[in-house]
């Protein structure tokens, strides 16, 4: 081929390439097109935006070509930064901002800069509210009809935020925002927490550039189970005085400083969700000291004080009535001196946790101001993802995993931990009576979606550049699904119709921006209808009325009592909210026609949003089968050292017989250390060698410890250590008989009366050859307690059950 022919072919190829790279007319480029500093806004309907087409010239040599840089995607001009804050387990009567007796100056600050909303609602439970918050869709629409640990195989309950439910992180990232998430996650299926992934349901897979926090519903604030993006922060070594709440604020502040230095003009979306005030209640000691003696008035008098404060602040109507005190909770003046001493301590520590959490949120807000970004930052501060938690039992608890499994700890035993309440030696929660009082003026608590005690949240919004009615109060009826469309309207971008090639479900929320102007302070609510459902308790709001089922069993019994077999046979109540803010006057018998209309409307809404099938089981769902790498397996095998597996990836020994076998080698100098463990100080088990003797220890939620120990030291060489447990099941928490063997010979044997019923741990891990978190028995060893011999093979053989 001649050289001229080659030139013609090359030029033709470049011409064809050029024809394929004409800049898209859909993109609006600002600055000089093709320059390194050119930017573009997009219509945002299809995310991510298609690659920008080349707009320069390409010829065989660079000196006859023209470069062209693709423009950076930016939001519309003037789009605000976003700081979205949500605390945990705090009802309407908690914060001082909404009449509570606990000061919350950071929330006050947002309310005074902007607006307080007095009819804003959650779903009544943690991860369902969080899924609704970040997607703008109802919790059943996103698969989160319940927390992920209770997920079942139905579209409304599988805890999978489908690819057709893109989060606000994905939407804003696609439109040029920096996106980050700090604190509690609880929206990844619990069976996907391990390093095996998949990671599409982790924050990084849901549109968040950076994540720093914990994955489950709670974690110990002193020794948290932390992740940075998808990597466990491991092994955990805490600093003196460390507390997670401060760490989260420190990390958010560090992040803001760094991204502001790197890209000062790029707007951020920062989602800050600390664990406060979910159990365990673990603030720092100096905050506890601030509240000493502040709750000596008791829960009944506190309700009166809160309602008076609420009326004074104008966050409830002046005719609001205080709902009746429930018959099955004691009145304060009937308590003994010891009971009052314990219960006031519980409230002091909870209040300290509220105030401490608010203080750390305030530090993040102050950093936004220090960076000069406050005026053009939309700040949404939601106090609680549901009502105050009743999961501490009527007595409160020293160890929260005991209470949520129906195990009460006597007052006298709890008082032994009075001075350690909230420290790393306890994982405390408070009495239900306090929880009910902190939901003033409403009935019920967290988990109860049928009543506002479970779903009414204090919420404030500020955006100094846009919202000018500083200190205003808004009473329109809104729901947590309304946050995403509010953000989208503030930014000026649409909800996408397609993300990553997947058609999107419509956003189900309604923007609240229509309430921002003072002239529209009393505008009618644009949210006309909203359903509620959790564990079979349900309600339907429509145009100022609400119909609600009467809970057949209180949430503090955790569904462990007999529930109605017929879920659709519940008693219903009816309230006219225009006249009865607190749901105090039931009109069901006076207006049966209205009630019937509302019940029919609930069925329509429930069918629309994947609410069916209704299910009123609670604790039982914790042990329901769900997909994971361990599902259906009875035999597990490990070798050498392995650590950091979440409980969902570990062999499940709950409510079943099992055999653990360790084939090991003891060196001539002897050996000690952990062979296998799951859990730690507050519940779990460990098979280990201590003082060269084999030990199996079963820690029943830090309430009892059962110990099997061989009397003779293991000689150098190979040995097989086995622990064989025969359960007395079927049933939850049954006892059984355990035998510890060495080389086939029984060395210890005992029968125990009970075991852990539903949940061994939330924030500890499964480790082989080491213990990377807390010890199952502090008197025996301290983590990491690595085995100094050699593990050839470690196996689990599981019987039926689980």
TrEMBL record:
This is Arylsulfatase. It holds the Pfam family Sulfatase. Transmembrane segments: none annotated. The keyword Hydrolase applies. PROSITE patterns: PROKAR_LIPOPROTEIN, SULFATASE_1. Residues 1-26 form the signal peptide. Keywords: Calcium, Hydrolase, Metal-binding, Signal. The keyword Calcium applies. GO terms for molecular function: hydrolase activity. Residues 80-493 form the Sulfatase N-terminal domain. Its EC number is 3.1.6.-. InterPro entries: Alkaline_phosphatase_core_sf (IPR017850), Sulfatase (IPR050738), Sulfatase_CS (IPR024607), Sulfatase_N (IPR000917). Belongs to the sulfatase family. The lineage of its organism: Bacteria, Pseudomonadati, Pseudomonadota, Alphaproteobacteria, Rhodospirillales. It is an enzyme of class 3 (hydrolase).
